Amino acid sequence: MTATEPLFRPFRLKGLELRNRIVMAPMTRDMAPEGVPGGANAEYYRRRAAGGVGLILSEGTVIDRPASRNLPNIPFFHGDKALQGWRGVAEAVHGAGAKIGPQIWHTGSTKGGAWKPEAEVESPSGLLAPDKPRGRAMTEEDIADTIAAFARAAADAKRIGMDLVEVHGAHGYLIDQFFWQGTNLRDDRWGGATLPERSRFAVEVLKAVRAAVGPDFPVLLRVSQWKQQDYGVKLAASPQEMEAWLGPLVEAGADVLHCSQRRFWDAEFPEIDGDTGLNFAGWAKKLTGAPTISVGSVGLGGAEFLAAFRGEGAGAAPLGQLMDRMARDEFDLIAVGRALISDPDWVRHVEAGDTAALRGFDARDLAELV
Ligand SMILES: Cc1cc2nc3c(=O)[nH]c(=O)nc-3n(C[C@H](O)[C@H](O)[C@H](O)COP(=O)(O)O)c2cc1C
Question: What is the pTM of this model?
Fold first, then answer.
């Protein structure tokens, strides 16, 4: 077995076969003028597919609600023009041998920068973060319309030839604003003292999405403990709380949980199984039985990523731990974000063991669609 073989095993998801375990993490690029992905966007994704990625998750692409995006060039996942653009992206990616699904998103009351959407931003309780008012609290009608918009986006994903859909339920955006006690103060059926009560919105979104795509189309859900508003938040403080949170989401229609953390090697509950214990995706899989995707700082050390594994450098933990965890099937897939921004051929380089070619991440590469 070569050092990186656990990464290069195929994976089956319902009827979908992935050629390896490497997923391109969803990454907002804010480079779709008028919300429409064009040739440059298709080419950007095609390059990662040609570079060997198994599954591409698109940048967050927003559902059909006023103020569902927080930057002006985030792509839409609604309307003929944008969907036609996404169809082109899917065809380009398929032509290069990878699978692809859009990450469907509503940014809630978050701020992307100084830009303001055309409509007032919306969230469960009109809060950006605890005690930070922004925008308005959603009405029953808003909530129903938002759930329907998620379902339409999922149906459109299937219709235009995408392989799956990922619902963005992480990082302090709309769905996560319902999960989080700090931003969901509602006293109706969309709020509550417990996380399972505050999960009702996500459950209803997933049920509607599942009903829209049928039983065989894979639906992924991205979740995180942390929020961009506060990296220290933990929605679930124990495995019991995590099971009570994630179990109903799987039951409602999520086939795969994409468990976002900032460093994949951080144990989720070190007080239980130590500093090298199961990570978030590991616990989520153990508790729900659903396949999971992990993520977080893979390959950021550049050449060190492989070299350290071979004993050629310091800091062996990252790749060594990734391979060990994947060989044990602690989780099923690994998403790679920033390393793939800087190097579309990152997967090929890792597969070939080409240490010299690995450069890590350079933030300057965010300036354009490399
Ligand atoms: C430029 C950029 C944009 C991102 N946009 C999104 C997004 O649209 N949706 C999402 O779920 N995560 C987003 N993320 C988080 C990534 O998907 C990923 O979880 C994070 O970068 C950690 O992985 P990495 O260490 O491999 O980069 C973004 C990250 C970056 C760097």
Answer: 0.96
